[in-house]
């Protein structure tokens, strides 16, 4: 299980890095890797998990604390 990254669930030494910019959208995309918390993905794209989650709720599901490796998220 991966967590939204509100502080206590972060893995030491690993920080999510922005992957690529979606053409013409102004939003970055990110493919979730093992251990990535949503909060750090959002932070790496200059935003918060609270802003990223609504745009990705159809991918993430009802639990923002549970993201899975391989999921492609819109961020930024």
As a percent range, the share of strand residues is 5-15%
The structure class reads alpha+beta
* Count of DSSP H/I helices: 2
Major beta sheet, strand line-up:
1-2-3
Q: How many strand units?
A: 3
Output the radius of gyration: 11 Å
Largest sheet: 3 strands, antiparallel
Write the element-wise H/E pattern from the N-terminal end onward. Answer: EEHHE
End-to-end C-alpha gap: 23 Å
* Low-confidence blocks of residues: 6-12, 20-26
General form: globular
Helix content: 25-40%
Mean pLDDT: 76
Describe the structure.
This protein is of the alpha+beta class and 76 residues long. It has a three-stranded antiparallel β-sheet. Helix 1 crosses helix 2. The longest helix is centred in the C-terminal third of the chain and has 12 residues. It is globular.
Provide a short characterization of the protein structure.
The protein has about 80 residues and is of the alpha+beta class.
Keywords:
76 residues, alpha+beta, three-stranded antiparallel beta sheet, 13% strand
Break the fold down into its secondary structure elements and pairings:
Elements: E1 20-21, E2 28-31, H1 38-44, H2 49-60, E3 72-75
Antiparallel strand pairs: 1-2, 2-3
